[in-house]
Every structure is written in structure tokens, then in C-alpha cells.
Design goal:
Number of strands: 21
Strand content: 15-25%
Structural class: alpha+beta
Low-confidence stretches: 1-7, 184-228, 299-305, 315-323
Radius of gyration: 23 Å
Mean pLDDT: 84
């Protein structure tokens, strides 16, 4: 397949470009440029179909010419995961957008895959509803969030975005439009507000970000003709476009909570986090999120700043006030009716002690990753009782503090290693951390990394469900035309 694609001469390449233009419209089909890449692999063409049928025609054209196709949303996570072995056509979903079947009071909405998540939330907010999805990537589309199974702080109560799926429409590798689960119209009379948001439902072992289709319905893949509908929908979560091209998703929606409060407390050691999280979960306050931020500690200032100084007022975690550098913060989000939220916040501050403070606003780091472009980004998932062991293992392996942030209440956090670390050093760190996690039923996945690191290390670690994932790929994309190499095992 790769040799066939590379051997296309200029006349054939121009012919494919003309055919793409006929399908998508002249402004929406072109030869790819330097910015059109997937984890460093540059595409040959970019096609932006105007609807599901046009997208199907693009896939049929690719099949006829034995070309590979990689979907792209907003491109916020295009460098995550493994690089595909080849990218012939980059299928941009930007015109597969819209929010449908969302009358006032409806418990579900059908949403086009190319719709920016913030546009979805703004549309639903007009009827005082929201998706319980808060993926950290700014500008991400719903399709991109599902393709990476990307979760934010609300994963603690509602699970991953996959847990909110009622149905999907997707295109298979041959360009056939498949509907599984329920469409927005079918689901309107059946779903109930707030139903089905199970914390563990559909969530892969990578904690969503980084995507792991091996546990997003993979148990259902037994062979051709034996794939139940909604399990296939959930299998698409985390597949990075390697199993199908998402066209739309029907999602559960919830009422916007009338009250929100953030209760924060400084923390100094990972072991203290363990005790605090247990106290929060035992307090009966029904948190919507329990987030941890462990930045690299900064040295104490040379001159102690008075606690009344404007830079530290109301900041009990500041080293100038405490006399010791706080390792970070544990922050709990409470949602519900205003009076109820206030009462629960009072109970929680009594549990967390005098250092706890209540705010109507999230901290600046809330819903953001601890890594930056060029870093090696890790996702660690481990039972919450062993989260401190994972953080200590990471510190021991790297020889110093590492920025860690994420859902302490769900046992899913992200960490950042410097992009300047040589690949062999990153590989040794991964080996050390994974050896600690495996005995604790945890995993460490490389979400994103510089190209040299990506080529040298095992991004996924042990994946017991790999045989089922192979079966799923063989069922849904037997010719490996969709994002080949993006899935674990080089699938």
C-alpha cells in the first residue's frame, strides 16, 4: 500500500486532487502543506468534506486508489500518540459540525464531530444545559475529544466523554455510513437527565487522554458479525481515527448546576494527598471533581514577605506565609443548588482543616495539562490508594520533582518530563515507573513526546487487550487504510 501510494506520478496526483475537489468543492481540497502533519508525518492531500456523504466519497476514493486516510479535527492533539506509518489524505472534519435535536429540556443532543466543544457548550447553555465534558485542549472538537478519549476534571463524577455516548454515526474504511446506538431523535424520549454517567464506564486505562481503545468496549470484539452496536461506538473512543471516521455523536446532556464552589487546600507531600483524598471521599460531600496540582517546588524567597502583602493575601499555601514551600494544591469542586453547595463546602472545610479556603472561581491551573509542547507527556492511571506511590516512583526515577496534575479522586494524572531528556533516559524512567505500577494495577502511557523519544520508547506499555484490539482492527479496517500505525501494536 505504501509503495503504491508513493508511486503515484504527477498526473495521477493531479487527478486525485481534481476528484477530491469535485467531492468537497474546489476551496476544500488541496495538496498538503508543511503544517499538515500527524505526529510528524506529513500528509499528501487535505480534504474538507461538506457533509457525511462527501466524507464517504473521500473514503471510497481512497479505497479505489489504495490510499490511507487520517481524520483531523482542530488538530489540538494531532501530535499525540504514535505516528502513522503513512498519511495520504488528511480528512478535516471542520465542516461536519452542528448541534441538532436539542430542544429545551431534551436529555440528549446529536453533535457533529467537527463542532468545537466550546461551541457545543455555548449552544446548550442557551437552554441551561451542558455536556459534562471539560477536555483541557483549547479549541478541541467533540470528535477529537472522543477520538482521544480526552477527559478533564469532571471525569471524577461523570467518567470519560465516552461514558456520555448514546450513539454515533461513523464511516467505515470503505466509506459506508454506519449508525450505532441511538440517534438524537430516537433517544429524545428515552434518556433521562443525569443518567448513565458512571465514573468507570467506558474509560480506558490511560485515563482518557492519550486514548486506549483496548478497554473502551474491546471485550465486545469477538469476530466479524459479532460486534454489538454501542460497544462499537465506545470502541471508537481513543482509537485516534484508526477504526472509523466519526461523523456525529449523540451525547447525554445535563442541567447547568446553579452553584459551584472550589475548596482548596495546600499539600506538601504525595503521601498527604493520599490521606486528604480519602478524607474528601469519606466526607459525603459528593464532589464533582477532586484535582491535584503538584508543580516543581520553588525555593523560599530570601526575604520573608508579610502575610498582608497584596501578592500573598488569602494565599495560605504561599511559602512566604507558611515558611515552607508548598508542593501543590488539592482542590475539590462542588456543584448543585447554591444553598446545598454552601453547606457541603462548610462540611468539607471542617474536614480539611484551617488551611482550606473556599472560592467561587477555579484556580488558574484548573483543567490544564502540566506539560507544554515539546515535553514528554505521561498519563498515569492507578488506584487512588496507590497514587502517592506512583508519584514517588516517578520522582525516584527522574531524580527530582516532576510536575504532576490531574484527577486525584479518579486516580488519573498527567506528568511532564523535559523534552531535552535523551530517549534512552526517558526509556529508563518509563521502565522504572511501570515496574512499580504493574504490581498496583496501574499503567503509564506516553501521551506525546518529541519524535526521537516517540521512536525509541514503548508508548503504551503492557496492554492485555491487544489481541481484542487486533480483532477490532481486522473487523473495522481490514486493509489498514485508517490511520495505520496510530493504534497500539502498530495497528
Amino acid at each position: 500500500m505504501a509503495d503504491a501510494a508513493r508511486s503515484t506520478d504527477r498526473l495521477e496526483a493531479l487527478d486525485i486532487t481534481r476528484k477530491l475537489a469535485a467531492i468537497c468543492g474546489t476551496p476544500f481540497a488541496r495538496f498538503a502543506g508543511p503544517a499538515d502533519e500527524v505526529a510528524g508525518r506529513i500528509a499528501r492531500w487535505v480534504a474538507v468534506p461538506g457533509g457525511p456523504h462527501a466524507a464517504a466519497e473521500v473514503l471510497r476514493l481512497a479505497a479505489a486508489h489504495d490510499l490511507t486516510v487520517v481524520p483531523r479535527g482542530a488538530g489540538t492533539k494531532i501530535d499525540w500518540g504514535a505516528a502513522p506509518t503513512q498519511v495520504d489524505i488528511m480528512l478535516d472534519t471542520g465542516r461536519l459540525a452542528g448541534v441538532w435535536h436539542e430542544p429545551r429540556g431534551a436529555a440528549v443532543a446529536e453533535i457533529g464531530a467537527g463542532t468545537p466543544l466550546r461551541a457545543v457548550q455555548a449552544t446548550l447553555a442557551r437552554t441551561n444545559r451542558r455536556l459534562p465534558v471539560d477536555a483541557p485542549s483549547p479549541g478541541a472538537t467533540l470528535g477529537g475529544v472522543l477520538a482521544a478519549d480526552e477527559s478533564g476534571p469532571l471525569r471524577h463524577r461523570h467518567g470519560s466523554p465516552c461514558a456520555q455516548l448514546v450513539g454515533v454515526r461513523y464511516l467505515d474504511a470503505d466509506g459506508e455510513l454506519v449508525s450505532v446506538g441511538e440517534s438524537g431523535t430516537e433517544a429524545l424520549g428515552r434518556a433521562t437527565p443525569g443518567s448513565g454517567g458512571g465514573r468507570a464506564s467506558g474509560r480506558g486505562p490511560a485515563g482518557g487522554a492519550g486514548g486506549d481503545p483496548g478497554r473502551s468496549g474491546g471485550d465486545a470484539i469477538l469476530g466479524r458479525g459479532e460486534v454489538p452496536g454501542l460497544d462499537v461506538a465506545r470502541l471508537l473512543c481513543g482509537s485516534q481515527g484508526g477504526l472509523g471516521v466519526l461523523v456525529s455523536a449523540t451525547m447525554r446532556v445535563h442541567a447547568v448546576p446553579a452553584g459551584r464552589l472550589w475548596v482548596s487546600r495546600p499539600v506538601w507531600t504525595p503521601l498527604e494527598v493520599h490521606d486528604l483524598v480519602r478524607a474528601v471521599l469519606a466526607a459525603g460531600v459528593d464532589p464533582a471533581a477532586v484535582e491535584l496540582d503538584l508543580p516543581v517546588p520553588v525555593p523560599l524567597p530570601r526575604r520573608r514577605i508579610p502575610p498582608t502583602h497584596p501578592s500573598v493575601v488569602n494565599r495560605p499555601d504561599h511559602p512566604a506565609v507558611t515558611g515552607r514551600p508548598a508542593a501543590g494544591s488539592l482542590v475539590v469542586l462542588l456543584e448543585g443548588g447554591p444553598a446545598d453547595v454552601t453547606e457541603r463546602a462548610e462540611r468539607l472545610t471542617a474536614v480539611l482543616g484551617a488551611e482550606a479556603i473556599v472560592s467561587h472561581h477555579a484556580p488558574e491551573w484548573w483543567g490544564r495539562y502540566p506539560f507544554a509542547p515539546g515535553d514528554t507527556a505521561l498519563c498515569i492511571e492507578v488506584p487512588i490508594n496507590d497514587l502517592h506511590a506512583a508519584v514517588y516512583a516517578l520522582r525516584d526515577a527522574t531524580g527530582g520533582p516532576v510536575p504532576v496534575r490531574g484527577s486525584a479522586g479518579a486516580g488519573t494524572v498527567h506528568a511532564a518530563l523535559s523534552g531535552a531528556l535523551p530517549p534512552e533516559r526517558v526509556a529508563s524512567i518509563l521502565t522504572a515507573v511501570r515496574s512499580v505500577l504493574i504490581a498496583r494495577r496501574g499503567r503509564c502511557v506516553v501521551v506525546a513526546a518529541p519524535a526521537a523519544v516517540r521512536r525509541a520508547v514503548d508508548l503504551w506499555g503492557e496492554l492485555p487487550t491487544l489481541p481484542r484490539l487486533r480483532s477490532a482492527k481486522a473487523h473495522l479496517d481490514p486493509h489498514h487504510r485508517l490511520a495505520p500505525g496510530r493504534l497500539p501494536g502498530g495497528l
